[in-house]
Amino acid sequence: MHEIKIVFLKLILSLLLGGLIGLERDIRGRHAGLRTHILVCLGSCLFMLISIDIFSIYHSYNSNSILRIDPARIAAQIITGIGFIGAGTILRSGTTIIGLTTAGSIWVCAGIGMALGLGYFIPAFLTTAITLLSLLILNKVELIFPRTTYFQIHMTTINKDNIEAKFLNFLEKENLKVRDFELKNIRQNNILHINFTLVMKRTGIKRHYFSKTVYKKIIDEFKNYIIEISWKKI
Predict the structure, then answer these.
(1) Domain segments of the chain as ranges
(2) Can you identify the CATH homologous superfamily of domain 147-233?
(3) Parallel, antiparallel, or unpaired: how do β-strands 191-202 and 147-158 relate?
(4) How far apart are CA 188 and CA 85, in angstroms?
(5) HEC states along the chain?
């Protein structure tokens, strides 16, 4: 049996380290925040303490015994269980998937709790520091690198004044890269359907505003022709 002081220290550390990561997620408004990360880290630490104690109690049983003790089994089940919790934080809204980072932080929190339960204090502290560094700083570092974003655009326009050529000239003038360009002319109603994928490659915060600027330019340029337009990130 562990000394009560050591047990208390490990549980308190799991609360603090799990809480630090959870606080960062909470500040960013994620569903799995402070309490979730504390509980995951604390529970993982407790299960590892139980696993070690079970092995110390029954360590006298050898390979010839009917009862065999494997301390790694509980640890393996922790990892499996955390997979279900992590999956619950991943949400899909249309073509956008959110929650992957939070799922990863929960998984790391479980590992930190397990490390503390085993008494691996330095790896637990280092992992917490690296995790916080990744969550707080790397999202800013990502802005340095160019990222390609795709938008699927569907337009319904009045087919007059050679709108097809005008729109192609507009794309060329704005130096916009498109793919999967498709035109469908409904002669009966004099309607033209324009479908295409817009490819944008920008760095920094500009990439968040550039798509809105392009959307506004299309609306302003063809406001006398557009009947309906839909704009979806893919």
Answers:
(1) 4-143, 147-233
(2) ACT domain (3.30.70.260)
(3) antiparallel
(4) 55
(5) CCCHHHHHHHHHHHHHHHHHHHHHHHHCCCCCCHHHHHHHHHHHHHHHHHHHHHHHHCCCCCCCCCCCCCCHHHHHHHHHHHHHHHHHHCEEECCEEECHHHHHHHHHHHHHHHHHHHCCHHHHHHHHHHHHHHHHHHHHHHHHCCEEEEEEEEEEEECCCCHHHHHHHHHHHCCCEEEEEEEEEECCCCEEEEEEEEEEEECCCHHHHHHHHHHHHHHHHCCCCEEEEEEEEC
40, 82 in Cβ contact below 8 A? Answer: yes
Q: Which two tokens stand for residue 48?
A: 């590892």
152-201 pLDDT, tens digit each: 888 888 888 788 788 888 888 877 788 888 888 776 678 888 888 888 77
pTM: 0.68
The Cα-based distances of 100 to 43, 87, 105, 133 in angstroms read 22, 9, 9, 17
